[in-house]
Amino acid sequence: MNIQESVAFVSGANRGIGKAYVEALVQAGARRIYAAARSVDTLNDLVAIAPDRIIPIALDVTNPDQVNAAAQQAQDVTLLINNAGVLGAGGLFIANSVDTAQWEMNTNYFGTLSMVRAFAPILQRHGGGAIVNLLSVVSVANAPVFSSYSASKAALNSLTQGIRAELAAQGTQVVGVFPGPVDTAMADGVPGDKAAPSEVAKLTLQAIEKGIDDVYPDPVSQSVFAAIGDPLKAVEKQFAGWMRQ
Ligand SMILES: NC(=O)c1ccc[n+]([C@@H]2O[C@H](COP(=O)([O-])OP(=O)(O)OC[C@H]3O[C@@H](n4cnc5c(N)ncnc54)[C@H](OP(=O)(O)O)[C@@H]3O)[C@@H](O)[C@H]2O)c1
Fold this sequence. Notes:
Order of helices and strands: EHEHEHEHEHEHEH
Mean pLDDT: 97
Distance between the termini: 29 Å
Structural class: alpha/beta
Strand order of the largest sheet: 3-2-1-4-5-6-7
CATH architecture: 3-Layer(aba) Sandwich
CATH class: Alpha Beta
CATH superfamily: NAD(P)-binding Rossmann-like Domain
Helix content: 40-55%
Largest sheet: 7 strands, parallel
Bound molecules: NADP nicotinamide-adenine-dinucleotide phosphate
């Protein structure tokens, strides 16, 4: 996919990695960018960088009416970036841990599933397009400092593989991004070096243009996947083959 010809939609665009995606898309010359946030007021400064190309949209990905309204409004989308996500505090055995796990699963897993279901027919009408899902290094092994978040990102990784196989027939490229810690509010409590959101965005757009499905955008991610990336991909392809038997 050529980013310059794309019409992109970014969820959770008001801050963090989502904001970096919008900025990178502007810089790369995308034709139009729908920037979605729960509160559109939080998008004012971002829209101001390219008011002719950035269209603000109100969207809570856990609200089916808003998901459908966003898809209705953005009928020309060719690149969907599912960036919105949440991470709750506390372990699996504190008082409200089930509520936290449901919130994370509703946002990170079911929210993304709703978005993909709403936008897949739009992408199909425009020749296939591309979907990007924000996964994590904790998609492939649980990080017990945020166990239930890890579980939601593992579910999203599995969903991403399923989407990739099911939408292959309509020519949709499905990209999974697996960052280690990135320098945003979400990773405030995480010690050590953190990748810049702009780097995650830049490498994702490069991967889309090159047709690469799995993005390891920082040294932590690259070290996690150095030994397991290829074997995991082989199993994914083996299981995807069951669809054609
Ligand atoms: N930061 C990291 O270390 C890291 C590492 C790996 C993966 N990721 C993933 O990267 C993505 C972006 O994270 P970030 O680091 O940029 O986090 P962030 O700074 O906390 O931003 C999260 C974004 O998601 C939005 N959001 C949350 N719930 C939403 C909902 N129900 N509907 C719509 N938007 C919602 C937030 O909107 P509000 O402003 O309204 O809250 C905000 O725009 C997430 O999927 C995250 O899991 C992050």
